[in-house]
Fold these 3 entries.
Entry 1:
Amino acid sequence: MAILVYADHNNQELSAATLNAVTAAGQMGGDVTILVVGDGCDAVAEAASRVQGVVKVLVAKDASLKDQLAENVAPLIAKLAPGYSHVVAPATTTGKNIMPRAAALLDTQQVSDITAVESADTFIRPIYAGKAMATVQSTDAIKLITVRTTTFAPAEAEGGSAAIEAVEGTGDAGLSTFEGAALSENERPELTTARVVISGGRGMQSGDNFKMLEEVADILGAAVGASRAAVDAGYVPNDYQVGQTGKVVAPELYIAVGISGAIQHLAGMKDSKVIACINKDEEAPIFQIADFGLVADLFAAVPELKSELEKQGIQAR
Amino acid sequence: MKVLVPVKRVIDYNVKVRVKADQSGVDLANVKMSMNPFDEIAVEEAVRLKEAGTATEVVAISVGPEQSQETLRTALAMGADRAIHVVHDGELEPLMVAKMLAKIVSEETPDLVVLGKQAIDDDANQTGQLLAGLLGWGQGTFISKLKIDGSAISVTREVDGGLEKVGLKLPAILTVDLRLNEPRYASLPNIMKARKKEIAKKTPADLGVDTTPRLKTLKVAEPPKRQGGKKVGSVAELVDKLHNEAGVI
């Protein structure tokens, strides 16, 4: 068996999510080939060739592939797929956008967002935002899989020496054009890939008060998130939202501040490795799932947390 | 411009999900069901397009059991003009639903199909992209802004790192994210009016779609329970535990 892993990248760097997908692919049993699709992406292909456990790197370079538009990339995946038992992509927004389109071209029912590999055809995936875990067996000849990156350890980025081979793209489908990106300006890591997340809820009382969380986030190298209550109250934009209908995160440390812990918020963060919370209401449901709960007024505790971190010289990793 | 909006009936997002004792699935008996929240946003966007004079007709579609009619009535009460119900009691997989939708698209010839980015039950996030692939149309997924100018449309997509703008030719598929709009509540007069609107019924067989699932669900289990509940007495203790005991900072 041979497994094709679709590389997530920005034409300059191979994203960490790809390394998690390589680990998942390895567990399916077979030689792992990485497919790099883009333009001017030689550095990415070289990085992919150094990933441990990878036997080959396929690179398709073309102006029509630069922005990884699904309309132009999916036909290439569909063309290559018959040589493989599985095609795997990290469940980033790029993977989620492209893979089902390729699945349509291959007449395959994709398995989305898997959190564990049981065997070559059987996978575990969360449903209902993780409130239940389904074990599903694919009957399709070629399995198309997206991988929830937070549940697979990253493959070693160095040590491999896979051969790099060029493949032809399928050209511009002429259906879509990339008009530009406005990637978040802030220096903080992205919510879904951050190692530490600090989120605020309705208890923050205003958008301005989120500055307190940002100061702590900057010390820890954390992303800042929010509960739906805080988003609905207009404190922060919707893209901060962690929860069933927002982003699902599973960082090493999740700090919930002024968040009561509604079911739909817990659904978005309960797979975090360690959960800490600060809330003045000791009956709040968030305490039931927190590893370390502090009953305190956040307006005193958060500034104190900042000064304590500074005092101890704790820095972002 | 004609707009199709597929909607799904799912467990209401406020309901606590319970796994059946025999691990065959999630208990849907006597549970409050609602329209998938992302689909409400899709309906709202389509209705706004009609109110702005851009769309001429909004058609809601649902694939599902008899009760999916209620979900379609909600879409009609929000402002959809008519509805199509593909009655299907069995398991719903995104590929099979996309094939049914593709057939309906070929009959209805809309300019735009607007869907929720994912359903909050199976969380697959596939149907819109599958439909776009089956039809060979352009796809604007996870959109938070939509601009239509004649036959060209421009969408702002929510991506992991921020936002992305993509231009699409019509006809096209759009899947919507939370920030696109705030869906309205249907008013009582509109709920009454919706009762008179037409819901056409079809079956998967009418559409020529095989409903044999491709995935076998072997088991549905509760997620592992967290051992939480420990409290700390001070900020200093919290920092100490996180740094020295858990080793996460």
Entry 2:
Amino acid sequence: MTDDALSRDLTRRLRDVEGVLDVFDAHPVVEGAVRVVAAGLDLAGSTGLVRVERAAGSVSVTAHVATDLDVPTPATLSRAADALREHLAGAGFAADEVVVTVSARLVDAAP
Amino acid sequence: MSIDDDAPLDPTDEPTIDGQTVERLSDYLDSGRTPRDPDIEGSAACRLYLRSLEQVHDLSRASLEEAARREPDRDGAWIDGLLASIKREVVGGRDIPIHHPDASVRLSVTEAAARGLVRRTGDAQAGVVLGSTTFDGDLATAGAPVAVRVTAAARYGLDLEALADELRARIVDTLTRHTGLTISHVDVHIDDVFVAREDDR
């Protein structure tokens, strides 16, 4: 599985987590812009918003989210991290190879 | 995410929030946020700015319009100052770590999101329009004591001591719930008073 495909899957997974209202692009600004253009060219669907970085023997994923004002944000972030780790385990990554970073960029009322 | 507070030398070089001018964001809000602009809606900073701007519009329009009618120069400057404060506050800032027992999991809330929570909390209190929010302390160390300083305008005639006490309690409650910060104290500085109209809250 490519990093882009993994990123898309992780983005979808995050959107289903209770208390997560939205997912923001966690890629650096320039990289994010290039990815949007590239995705438009190959019509492969939306780009993933979760940043996936691999190094020897490890994978690091970073997600930026909006959380629901009615749910304590620490609990939402913890659930989001669990969901990402669970998905990565299902994709064959060992738990000790994975680093998960989740940041709340906005706490908002659910629409 | 970027912001530039320097005065523009050229109109095309206007300060932006994640690439969006404040004029564009204001127009977008006025249009009811339709058609949906994915560049704006995909930016946490723009969303924070829109929400704050919306709160200013919704919660205090009547009072501010009344004040601006009475003293247009003074209150125009006050509103400009408020919008400038909002613009400064929506950038990411420091990360506030959230404890997690697994060392391979790193959770955080951005300082901008926390300031947004404080603004939302203040503006939700009747008779208050929040001005600015500052956190003093080591935000990056979980459990370190942090002081919160806010400025606000209060509706004329209210008991300012009671208003400040309520605002302090609300701010501590929301920050504890959503960031886990250890709040040492909250300084509330009422720096302006507005006169409510009958249709204002």
Entry 3:
Amino acid sequence: MKRRFTPWLWASPTLLLLLGLLLWPAIQLVRLSFCRGGGGRSGFGIGGSFYQPGTWTFDVYTQLARDAYFWDVLGFTVWLGLVLTLLCVLLGYPTAYFIWQLPRRWKATALSIVVLVKLSSLLVTVYGLKLILGDYGPVNRFLQWTGLTNTALPLQSSAIGVVIGETILIIPYTILLIWAGLERIDRALIAAARGLGAGAGRSFVHVTLPLSLPALATGTLVSLIWGLGAFISPYLLGSPQEITLAVDVQRQMFENLHWPRSAAEGVALLLTLALLVALCALPRRWLWKKSGLEAQAV
Amino acid sequence: MKRRLTSLPLALPSLLVLAALLWPVIYALWISFTPHEILQPPGAEWSLRWYHDFFAQPRWMDGLRNSLITAALATGISLLCGTSVAVAVTRYHFRGRRLLQGAAMLPLFIPAIVLGMALLPMMRTLGLWGTHFSVAAAHSLWGLPLVLLAVRGALEETDINTELAARGLGANAAQTFRLVTLPMIAPAVGVGAVMAFVISLNELVMALFLCTSTIDTLPKVIWPNLRYTLSPLVAAASAVTVLVTFFLLAGVVLLHRRILR
């Protein structure tokens, strides 16, 4: 009888953390989105409040549904999320494949570049990008030197800047996940295909690619999740036209001090995420089955 | 030889991607050594003046201190939760085991902005808003799954019979864990700890929501500067976080070598 509870005893700190910092805030978030706004525009917590606790209303949601600005923001968020996913996968897969093929020593170097860039502050990358993409930055100077353009291209404060920046911030995840999937493939299978007369291209299409599809699907999913939640790059490398839901959540909270609206937009972001992930997960399950790798599922 | 040739069309874009990843970081570090007031890369002359400024100004030093305190707290929480839950899922079979693992990994798949926005009202009602603990607790949502992954792998590889032998010889569960299991998985716990520390040190979005001016972490102090003033001082501040991260990760590599040996 006592043994039944032992694992839960071990798990109790985690359970406490997850219940207190994940489940409860999630419930609070939804509850907050049904509160009346506090009308607290008159300063940070002074003279007004962020919301009126204990009230129940659909105001925020009806307001959002009618707000053309909100739909623009949502549309841009989804567009950006899809573009980023596509770019990360199209660029990430070859890179992961390339790293996988490298000899041991170079592989370690390439992987540590990816991990270091990912783990050091995102802000360093954004700072560097702001300088590189700026009007007088090396990219623009190079383009003008080659004569491709006469005036500086708006690489910064534009959708181009946002896409470049966020791709660089997300792609390490994609590369690492796909690389890890490739690394799990039994190299003997590829050697066998080559030995039986398949060329490099054929053995890739018929052996390596199908076996790496589950990892590719996971990589796509994670890119999509991070792409939809894009915040740092749109905020720092975009213009006021490039507002994502994540940026607006933060603005509603700290600039408009309309917490219920911020919460409702957070809920909208999560719902969009869930919907797109579900759409992606359907073919994913099918892929797992097809490649016969269910047993290795995380 | 043939393999090299066929992989050239693959190598070129891949190297470009890697270069694109590395370039902004290198460029920022390079700028941080400029002797000039303006954002011009250092030419013949390199200078540490911006680092002097960084270490001389209390605003930045407070940020660094707050970051280190927060990261240390977050590491502690992540280690406590991550290690214990790793024991639960590797040493016991019980209903809800997979669900528990999934739930522990879940925070990695939720946008930071939603986590931050959901945690702020809660911390405010609890009266914890503006404490190091609130930020650290939020960061441990990401540290916990990383520790779990590292420690779970180590636990799966250690021989469970050693533990059973200890139990058979009369040690209780706590003694067995402390004297037998923990020494065996210590390097993995170390790796998990460094990962949790580094993640917390560099995390910005949750900190943006949960920090108040007295406990601003270094990324939060850097943040407004990136929008308005790109002084080389900001590059120096970023460089400091990169250096700390780099040394910690080098430590992980050394630990990892010890595990493999």
